[in-house]
Amino acid sequence: MNDREHQDEENLARLIRAGFNETARPDATMHQQTLRRLQEICRTEYGSQPQEQSVSAKAPKADSVSRRVRHERNEYERNTYQERTTIMSKLFTRWGFGLSAAAAAAAILVIAMLASPHAQAAAAEVMAKGAKALAKLTSVHLRGRLRTEPQDNFSMISAASDFQTIELWKQFEPELKWRAEKPARVAVMDGNSTLLYIKSGNLALKVPHPAPSAFDTGWLHLFANLSAAITNELNNALAKGWSMSLNRQTGADGLTKAVVTIQTKAGLPFNDYLKDTSFDRSDTRRVYQFDDQTGLLEAVHIYLEASTGETLMFKLDQIEYNEPIDPSVFQLELPTNVIWWQDEMPMLPDNQKYAAMTPEQAAQAYFDAFARKDWAEAEKFRRSAVDEGTKQEVGGLQVISIGQSFHSADQNYPGLFVPYEIKLANGEVLKHHIALKKDAKTGRWWVDGGGF
Q1: What's the domain range around 299?
Q2: Is the per-residue pLDDT at 358 higher than 90?
Q3: Would you say the C-alpha torsion 112, 114, 115, 118 has a positive or negative sign?
Q4: Which of 17, 83, 153, 165 falls between 20 and 30 A from 221, CA-CA?
Q5: Are the C-beta atoms of residues 148 and 164 closer than 8 Å to each other?
Q6: Is 289 in the same domain as 382?
Q7: Global confidence as pTM
Q8: Radius of gyration of the chain measured on its C-alpha atoms
């Protein structure tokens, strides 16, 4: 089984698990039987078909599969099943996308279980048309504005921050290359390796192979890859109860625009520490604007939704398609004194002393090292050397208090947070949280953020 087939089977299994009503959810044995039957149907109907063949060429067999999948679901749920218009069959047939066997079955189940199939279908069809329009691009350049801090991760957002420029250059042919940049952070994939440079800390990290996206730029790449965006948004619509809607309006250029609005829910408590720090941890209203004739994406606006109202967090209004990109864009010259990120933390002679520390003790020891200007000690809790700017800014600090560590409800983040209050040498008092992760090899805590 190749990677694509494995992924399709995993997606199919996940969709089946998520899709049954709570009151009619089958037991594990019934689920496994259903999964095997659905996979057998897919192999029988699609096994000899090439993956690239369009759905329109497979229409007769797709109808057969649709009926048999519905039959299997009826048998195990023992409920009546009303046939509905499916988004995926409609949009993929109309716009000529190919589907692998498991993905086709999953698509039928996805839309059969959506709450508002016709409304969802109209919005998803517009996005599919946009994906089709982007399918033959040679390059794209996105330029937008994001509420964030200049040096923060590409995915980090802050409603209290000013807008910063964020850009993505992406070349699809003849070789995939890309560059993402904000004022104090840049990432470049030149076709051979992938490099991150944080200007404010003179810090670099290199991955010795090309990556389609990296360093928290994935959300930005979605706007240049609407096929992935469709999958992402529809899966979330099912799993998290997101809604999609469509309306048409006349733009300033007098042309009709198709506007898709997606309401997202993060599922985090309103007071969670990581809530509203990235789009996938926020409740948002995402507005995609397409040219109704060409299907091309023209603009994206993302609003943060809170009890106090909406805040515009991201506005993408400059999109250039198939414009030549200067080769120098995909080159990045680093300073000779750049500080390199350590892939592995070294084992220390007295490593057990540090491995036995609690998160609170590790935070205290880290700040105490800065208070003494003991940079070698501070670097035992870091994956990089302390840069000169940081030494000048926080060296000689005074620790006021260290709080109790805690975890976020976001289980995707493996670290924890320790509140602290310090006083800098210039008299400024800082209250923040230091993010700590446990290194698997050494067992030591290391600083992942919030602690310079």
Answers
A1: 139-330
A2: yes
A3: negative
A4: 17
A5: yes
A6: no
A7: 0.72
A8: 25
